[in-house]
Amino acid sequence: MSHTLKPGTYRHYKGNLYEVIDVATHSEDESKLVVYRPMYGERGLWVRPLSMFCESVEVNGESLPRFERIDD
Fold first, then answer.
1. In whole angstroms, what separates CA 68 from the centre of its chain?
2. 67/72 Cα distance (integer angstroms)
3. Which of 13, 39, 64, 65 suits a disulfide with 17, CB 3.0-4.6 Å?
4. Phi and psi, residue 47, nearest 5°
5. Per residue in 12-32, pLDDT tens?
6. Mean pLDDT of the chain
7. Torsion angle in degrees (nearest 10) through CA of 34, 6, 12, 16
């Protein structure tokens, strides 16, 4: 599955905000990883598989994006 993802501010379905830095390529298997930073706490860098970042989750019977872009 191919996804495009723009850097910017995203809201996790649980409410916290995250800054997406960019999409990186894993050096061993060339999988795509989202590099992002929580906009709270220690603000350390994290990575998550692109496919997981872009997937939907079910909450109370409703399908929601795991992360939703909130700026242009």
1. 8
2. 15
3. 39
4. -130, 150
5. 999 999 999 999 999 999 999
6. 93
7. 100
Number of CB atoms found within 10 A of residue 34's CB: 24
Answering whether pTM is above 0.85, one says yes
Give the pairing of strands 32-38 and 17-25. Answer: antiparallel
69 burial level (CB within 10 Å; 0-12, 13-18, 19+)? middle
Q: Which residue has the higher pLDDT, 32 or 72?
A: 32
Answer whether residue 1 shows pLDDT above 60. Answer: no
pLDDT attached to residue 3:
63
